[in-house]
Amino acid sequence: MSARNRLYAALIFLGPALLAVILLRIWPAFDAVHQSLLAPRATRYGFENYIFILTDPVFQNSLWTTLIYSLIVNPLQIAIALALALLMNVAVRLIRFWRTLILLPVAIPQSVSAVIWGVALRPDGPVNAMLVAIGLEEQRFLTSPDQALASVILIVSWIGVGYWMMFLLAGLQDIPKSLYEAVRIDGANRLQQFWYVTLPQLRRPLTFVLVANTVANFLVFAPVQILTQGGPQGSTNLIMNEIYTLAFVAGDPASAAAATVILVSVVLLVVIVQFRMMSAPEDRQR
Amino acid sequence: MTRPGPVRIAVIVAIALLFFLPLWWVTISALRPADEIFRYLSPLSTWTFWPRELTVAHIAELWTGPFRQAIVNSVYVTLVTVVVGLVVCATAAFALAVIDFPFRNAVFIIMVISFLIPFDAIAVPLFGIMRGLGLQNTYTGLILPGIGNGLAVFLLRQFFLGIPRELREAAFVDGMGWFGVFWRIYVPLSGPAIVSAALILFVFQWQAYLWPLLIAPAPDYKVAAVAIAQLSSFYDQNFGLVFAAALFIALVPMAVLTALQRFYTASVASGGSKE
Prior knowledge:
heterodimer, A: mainly alpha, B: about 280 residues, mainly alpha, 2 domains, 15 helices, about 0% strand, disordered C terminus
């Protein structure tokens, strides 16, 4: 095969995917940067749009809400997923079936899960009925500024933790038995086994889950837009909902573009930092 | 793996059933008369969790009512996405894994970095571009974002890299061209990876919400995931239809993933957590 033949073949095979990457990722990314730097009623470049949204109390609140939400939801979901993985890592009849029941919610479109939980969390809905049945008080959930964000966290965790559990389960099953036997001979108890064998051995799947989950949680949109539209009182106005509101409710595409650039930058930064933090010294030397 | 005690098994079963409870409630609510959906909540009774009367009226309404077009749209858009997406992703993966051309690694790195940008994050600027191209309220506009999937390309490329070089060299000697090698050798040998890639493409498109909400708001092109959200926000809610729609939209991927679970988790796990 001549070099020219290989180049033509590569162009034909890669062509559609390259066009897709350019149209679907590179063009909109550049377009967002371009729009965000262009003042709404001027033709020169500048940072007016960034200054405008960063001094806007609604946008500031949205960033703050997203930060609080991320700091709660990511550790919470990973802890639950890890606990579930440890619990479900047993050889017993039907265990695949029980795991599948926990995994199922991730297969459902988020808009459907949002609709289901929207009805379930109604003041006169089944969740309150169950709370009353076990002797607790009824809650306001999505209609209360103090509980709405927690309700969103409940919904996205029901959706996601089974999915992350599957990666950690796969990781647990890759750990060689001999490692546990070795530390047991040294007299390690169960907690020490977990701390000195399980956690270090799970570093790779945990890194992946941490990064993928953080990114996924930055992008939560359907439950917020369907159930609260960012309310009550801005308490659930996560960044994706704020971008949507800026672009299509406020009719301010330049501000939406600036917010998009901030979101994409933060996502890429988080991905890079988390991969670096979780990689062990021996990986870095290589 | 350890032999679990009865307490641990009970905890496993209880947690699994708790996770399943909302879906069970959707199922029975879709199959019971509309006036019974909220009837047995206070006090809680057996009838809260078990239908007293069964009806398929709401299920039938999916096909006779306003939801029918949304189902047709979702199924059509998803099928086309999987078929076209497989062609686009598999050919790209083949070029990146097999054909030795200048700047191959550079092209691969640009593709990986581009796909690190999550699609939903740039959906709003992309919407402006696509509307400018006249693609609002078209099937093309709905399908396009689903066909180029970085994870599917990455996964297929990894699999293609594992197919021995000697196979294609022998084929070239026999006079086969690049397309022959791709279609007669690489595709038939890559069954599991292709199923995994198809699942990734399927899940992405079936679950899409933000993009269809923007690009296809007209009733003729609205997909099911968007239609159900709007159905449930009507003031005069038809809960029977909402639950029937939720059940249908949820059952399709649940059935597919349950049947093909080993392909899905295995592929995503090996694509993500290991090199």
